[in-house]
Amino acid sequence: EVQLVQSGAEVKKPGESLRISCKGSGYTFITHWITWVRQTPGKGLEWMGRIDPSDSYTNYSPSFQGHVTISADKSISTAFLQWSSLKASDTAMYYCARLRYSSGWPDSWGQGTLVTVSS
Amino acid sequence: EIVMTQSPATLSVSPGERATLSCRASQSVSSNLAWYQQKPGQAPRLLIYGASTRATGIPARFSGSGSGTEFTLTISSLQSEDFAVYYCQQYNNWPQTFGQGTKLEIK
After folding, report:
1. Nearest CA in chain A to B101
2. Where in A41-77 does DSSP place strands (E)?
3. Which band of pLDDT confidence, cut at 50, 70 and 90, is reported for residue B66?
4. If you placed Cys at A82, which of A19, A39, B50, B99 could pair as Cys (CB 3.0 to 4.6 Å)?
């Protein structure tokens, strides 16, 4: 069974850094791209970017380019989403998902990581 | 980026009846469209890809149709577990984009 297990909820202050994770199992991790999706009540579901775990090649949505960093460690079948300086507007639920192929649809999703940024 | 517009925002239907949800793209996405179901506190679940192909394990009462800019998700006979929020998503162009969702509620 394909599973993506994300790290737990985080509460941070503005300006702090954060890295959340997404561990894949039940399939060969390097054969499927991973994407990150943000969900907020105001803007709904938003694509952030995607990574090819085989070589860590990444694409970012223009809305998120420069604001987050997506990475992966294929030795531990884990993808990461990272911020260097959080803002209150980063408060959201973040999902990782496995793409069916590089430009395809997400066919399996993680359970989500809630990030709260508040002073 | 491509804007996906779903209608209606909320749909009230009685159990056992048919529900029809619509999704429109601001430009053609060919058949590169997926539908997802999301229940409170859960991640989205893939229902349909390629506009009309059911994902593994999805009951036959769910069907998708359309191509280009107009798409429909039909649930033929609503079960209690089908009341949720439904999203369409295009993956024809980067960045891939989602509709704002249709909430399917019990009438």
Report:
1. A44
2. 44-52, 57-60, 69-73
3. very high
4. A19
